[in-house]
Automatic annotation (TrEMBL):
This is Ribosome maturation factor RimM. The gene is rimM. One of its GO terms (cellular component) is ribosome. Binds ribosomal protein uS19. Its main location: cytoplasm. It comes from Martelella lutilitoris. One of its GO terms (molecular function) is ribosome binding. Residues 98-168 form the PRC-barrel domain.
Length: 188
């Protein structure tokens, strides 16, 4: 199996489920049960996984049976494995105007309206209370900002830029005296 050119993380394998080789999986898709619609899943080590069956699980997980994983021992060996697809397998033609895949945000440069750079988007997280963008810049520690309309003002895929409001994003103090001063994340 050749290395994927533009890998998109689709799922992470959790614990084994039962004795027949099924595994619990956390999917990063809008509908986890459709993860098999994107084709075979690929591990970083080159292994390819064909999904035979998916079914709902507990705690936002699904249960998957893969071809060739036939017992609990084989399933347990997969725990923690990240699974990817090629970016080209995502159905762009089904997107509405102004819709995009979160994976397309990664690598976009982030600026405020004064032209100050805050790095580039390196990841998108959902911890339950709202999505967060992780920003990384050269020589800077990563910072998380809320991914909402107040903080993220504009996304320009053509110029590969994101415009943010640094106050709403929690990166600078608004000077009203109500908020504590935000420390410089690079200072130590």
């Amino acid at each position: 199996m050749a290395k994927l050119n533009d890998p998109i993380l689709m799922a992470t394998i959790g614990a084994a489920q039962g004795l027949r080789g099924d595994v619990r999986v956390r999917c990063f898709t809008a509908n986890p049960l459709t993860v098999g619609d994107y084709g075979n899943l690929h591990a970083e080590d080159g292994r390819v996984f064909e999904i035979l069956e998916t079914r709902p699980g507990k705690n936002n997980m699904i249960v998957i049976r893969f071809r060739g994983v036939n017992d609990r021992t084989a399933a347990e060996a997969l725990r923690g494995l990240n699974l990817y697809i090629e970016r080209d397998n995502l159905p762009d033609d089904e997107l509405e105007d102004e819709e995009y895949f979160y994976a397309d945000l990664e690598g976009l440069d982030v600026f405020d309206d004064a032209g100050n750079s805050y790095g580039a988007i390196s990841a998108i997280f959902d911890f339950g209370a709202g999505d967060l963008l992780e920003l990384k810049g050269p020589g800077r520690r990563p910072v998380l900002i809320p991914f909402n309309e107040s903080a993220v003002l504009e996304i320009d895929f053509e110029d590969r830029r994101v415009l943010i409001d640094p106050v709403a994003a929690g990166l600078v103090d608004d000077g009203d005296g109500d908020a504590s001063d935000f420390p410089d994340p690079d200072a130590r």
